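Changelog-adjacent note: as of this version, every example in the card shows the full chain rather than a window. The one below runs 173 residues end to end.
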Amino acid sequence: MAFSLYDATVPTFIQMLGGLATVLDKGRAFAAEKGLAEADVMKACLAPDMFPLNVQVGQAVHHALGSLEGVAAGQFSPSMEPVPADFAGLRALIDDAIERLKVVAPAEVNLLEGKECAFVFREYRLPYKGADFFTSFTLPNFYFHVTTAYDILRHIGVNIGKREYLGATRTSA
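Full-length structure tokens:
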């Protein structure tokens, strides 16, 4: 059985978004325990020129779900939509993305392998074939945003580790 574009993307998106949901749940509990305002946690970032926590989560979801829609349409752009500014809203965003990803048909994704698409931001345009877009652009960006959200929460003191980050791995058992 060949490894497909679907295999490389959708199950990984679902797994890592599940881990991100767990990390956010622990972040929410930590904030409540420490008396931290959710708004302050949402604005937390690792450096002044980086997106805050809530935007990192929003971008991760956009790279997971939006990339599939974007490649199908022939163009992907960064999301400029506002993202929730609380744990409940971010969790709902992730849960919705996971449910939508669960019903994506493998054949639908595999048809995108050779599809022409472009990353477009303002006047900037990068052309790709679908497989290259997913493997060299979307997946690295997706992991970056998931990891950065994890790192922000870890940096403020949330007791999380690799087990939470990875979510439910796809074992052969």
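Structural remarks: Residues 46 and 151 are 8 Å apart (CA to CA).
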